[in-house]
Amino acid sequence: MNHLFNWLKTPIIKFIFIGGSNTIVTTAIMALLTFIVSPIVAYSIAFVLGLAIAIFMNTTFVFGAKLSRVIALMLLCVYLFVFLLGVTITTLLTHFPIPKYWTSSTVLVTAPISFLLTRAVIYRFEPSKER
């Protein structure tokens, strides 16, 4: 039984929980906002809200690192890249004859990329973290 509880404490499981919760919330926010603003504006608002949650929770809770200025700056760069990727995907999706709220599927691409790049930053700039 202890083995199960130890496995639940691994970074990937924590990320799935925190990142998944964050993704669900921001996807719902984006989908709802598409009814009142353009998909790009909706994505932007949802992304910024999710960004604050992601930087703090992924650094401290998921990877157990200290949130230093260097890590915060590097994660901002990661999330800027992910944001631009998301805007690109969302823009491409708006050219297809699909309902606007389907553009929220952008997060199915950006979420895994966010995890991998966040982990790379934490492990690079927090040497005490296990690889």
Write a brief caption for the model.
The protein is mainly α and 131 residues long.
Count of folded domains = 1
Listing every helix as H and every strand as E from the N terminus to the C terminus, the arrangement reads HHHHH
How many strands appear in the DSSP assignment? 0
| Secondary-structure content class | mainly alpha
Our measurement of the CA-to-CA distance between the termini, rounded to an integer number of angstroms, reads 25 Å
Give a quick account of the main beta sheet: strands, pairing sense, barrel closure.
none
What portion of residues is helical?
Answer: over 70%
Shape descriptor? globular
Average pLDDT over all residues: 87
The proportion of strand residues reads under 5%
What is the CA-based Rg, rounded? 16 Å
Helix tally? 5
> pLDDT under 50 segments (min length 5)?
none
